Amino acid sequence: MMLVKYLGLHQVHFFKSLNIKKLKGIELLEPILEKYCEENFQNSSDVSAKLLEYKKLLLDANKNMNLIGKSTIDNFDQRHFLDCVQIHEHMPEKNKLTVDLGTGAGLPGVLLSIIGYKNLHLVEKSPKKSAFLESCKLRLGLDFVIHNQPLAEVSLSNVQYIVARAFAPISKILNFTKQMVTDQSQYVLLKGRSYLEEIKSVSNKSFNWNDFPSITSDDSRIIVLQVK
């Protein structure tokens, strides 16, 4: 009887400690993300504060809509925030027109806004997700345009950067955005293992491309395509 009582007490403490860890995960950013912000952004304290607030908004909204996979929540900061924010290293012009295709929860679009990109357009056809993005924009004091419509209906031109994460194969992205680009445009795409197969469809006559390792996964790459 005493053993059962002890085990019950032990389980209570164990699950309480799990809940505390989860609570801390929501209330704090992981040190690796904090360090990255400090090393890359002059206003790192402001960036970190907004990242934390955005994280809370996203995780709360995720209870009622599918913004991110539940299996990724425990590694949220690296899997989502750090994975996305690293693309700024390939996008030095923060005031040039930038479009995020199929932004979903705002990854990477909202993050780019937080770190200082100004002329930013987020494309998301889901009304619910677009409403979430509007809420983030107001709560965080950010400045971006939300296009709640299919990509085929978006009318933009002279775009400097086109970014996308888990949106569509490269060939489809290039086809969807023909009217947006000039010979100065760049695509910055977060891709997984399939990138080598996808890149075969890219015409060497139309694009130069490079792939760069991701700092969050050995299986991931950042693909940068320059329009010729």
Tell me about the largest β-sheet: 7 strands, mixed
Number of domains: 1
What is the percentage of strand-forming residues?
15-25%
- The helicity comes to 40-55%
Question: What is the CATH topology assignment?
Answer: Rossmann fold
Question: Order of SSEs, N→C?
Answer: HHHHEHEHEEHEHEE
- The Rg value, from CA coordinates, equals 20 Å
Report mean pLDDT, rounded to a whole number.
Answer: 89
**Secondary structural class:** alpha/beta
What is the spatial order of strands in the main beta sheet?
A: 3-2-1-4-5-7-6
What is the CATH level 1 assignment?
Alpha Beta
Ends apart, CA distance between termini: 77 Å
At a glance:
By secondary structure, this protein is α/β, with parallel strands linked by helices.
List key phrases describing it:
alpha/beta; Rossmann fold; 42% helix; disordered N terminus
Question: Any overview of this molecule?
Answer:
The chain has one domain (31-149, 157-227): Rossmann fold, CATH 3.40.50. It is of the alpha/beta class. It is globular, with a radius of gyration of 20 Å. The chain has helices spanning 2-27, 31-40, 44-61, 76-85, 109-114, 127-140, 170-176, 195-199; strands spanning 98-101, 120-123, 145-147, 161-165, 186-191, 207-213, 221-227. Helices cover 42% and strands 16% of the residues. The N and C termini lie far apart (77 Å). Helix 5 links the parallel strand 1 and strand 2 (120-123).
